[in-house]
Amino acid sequence: MGRVLVNGIPVEQVSVMDRGLAYGDGLFESIRFVGAVAPLWSRHMQRLAEGCRRLQIPLPDASQLWAEALEVSRHLAHSVVRITVTRGQGERGYALPSRPQPSRVLAAFAPPALVDENLDRGLDLRICDLRLAEQPQLAGIKHLNRLEQVLARAEWCDPAIAEGILRDTRGLVISATMANLFARIDGELLTPAVDRCGVAGVARAELLAICPQARIGEMTLEALLRASEIFLSSSVRGILPVRSVGERTFQPGPSTRELQQHWRNLGFSREQAG
Amino acid sequence: MGRVLVNGIPVEQVSVMDRGLAYGDGLFESIRFVGAVAPLWSRHMQRLAEGCRRLQIPLPDASQLWAEALEVSRHLAHSVVRITVTRGQGERGYALPSRPQPSRVLAAFAPPALVDENLDRGLDLRICDLRLAEQPQLAGIKHLNRLEQVLARAEWCDPAIAEGILRDTRGLVISATMANLFARIDGELLTPAVDRCGVAGVARAELLAICPQARIGEMTLEALLRASEIFLSSSVRGILPVRSVGERTFQPGPSTRELQQHWRNLGFSREQAG
Hints:
Two copies of one chain form a homodimer.
Chain A (H helix, E strand, L loop, with lengths): L3 E3 L6 E3 L3 H5 L2 E9 L6 H15 L6 H12 L4 E9 L16 E7 L6 H6 L1 E10 L14 H7 L9 E6 L4 E4 L3 E6 L2 E5 L9 H9 L4 E3 L3 H5 L3 E6 L3 E8 L2 E2 L4 H13 L8
Parallel strand pairs in A: 6-7, 6-13, 10-11
Antiparallel strand pairs in A: 1-5, 3-4, 4-5, 7-8, 9-10, 9-12, 12-13, 13-14
């Protein structure tokens, strides 16, 4: 871990009374920096604002977050800055504090190591048993209640398996455990809706903005398994081709390569990938 | 807040790297103490052990928790001791740490003030709009992912409304926001199942153990509204009669009074209620 600022102060602890710890009552963003540049900063701030609105948490000042993000990451040529915003300290009980004073925690990390072979040939995925619960009031935002992802990721420890596919209670494909998912099915580029469960990824939003032909919709597992190409999107890890889902194998396709090029053009060059 | 111990040390902070903060990756128990006596201690430890098993968190030593609970509460004649157990510190990412070192936080609080009138005449309840999502892998245990309860409790701020009724996505009654619910319907004492959502309360477990005639089953809102009596159970607040649910009014009934007496017999006398 690099530097940490808690409410602007260089400490590495939060109060045990913070509702982030007590109830997971908050939000986070993991933002890829290349030096002092964060190509997707404004999309992260947009999602954070939507999360604060939905959870009724006062929105921190974006320019203050930016200054603090630069401060914690300035000794790293490449970094991931995690911004955690909680409802702040509270007494016992779920009721909202009458005068909330949100906490903000900024911490810089070295980016995850990306193996060239994974970016070229693709990742091996499994299908997780855990089914995401349907909670429209929490779907899409990046809140701190992440036990479903923790349990899904705990389903395997084989390091050859890079990711797991998450389905909802109806069996529809939603995403991977820490990335969104796109697939070309019957000629159409499709990504699952995240309005009942799942996270509306910042990289997903970027891809949807530059691919007007991509469609948001329902994706069955059967449809996924007959896709002509599959890739994952992650604001931290970029565009990751999928080589296999369980027994079924895939080849990286033209959309994958085109969007990987777009990713590099944004400023996330391969050399910068950790 | 009274005293705090974090991993046995008298500090009031946890690391920002704690997975309890990062993902709500942990569990808690709120335990009512009368001096150095906690009548439901063993039931709390039983639920904590079940939660640790389900989340694959190493179980803390119960005798150490007991010693620390006495330590944080010893200056209070009456207290609620919150025990929080998290998976401990971790690097970025959902994958379980290879050598988890769970964190434990013990903090003592004054018990909530209970108004005599509420214990006598009963509480006024509303029906919450939020629907609990169905996640069998997290149902029943007292984990730290509590945004649903926070959002449900945020639906009202009228201090005359003491609690809200939570339903699942199918519309079935599950519980209140911070207590379990029992109702006598068609002569039968019924409490909703908590195997798809909701929390298996320690007070609920106590009541089920001493009321062999009580049944766990599905409860529609329509059935609840024609109950002859309704009460809430909370290990911290005891047995609370319900006086109204929205427009519909109720009288505390014989089961409510009998179980309030049982509660006092356990050692939670009314005078001790904060």
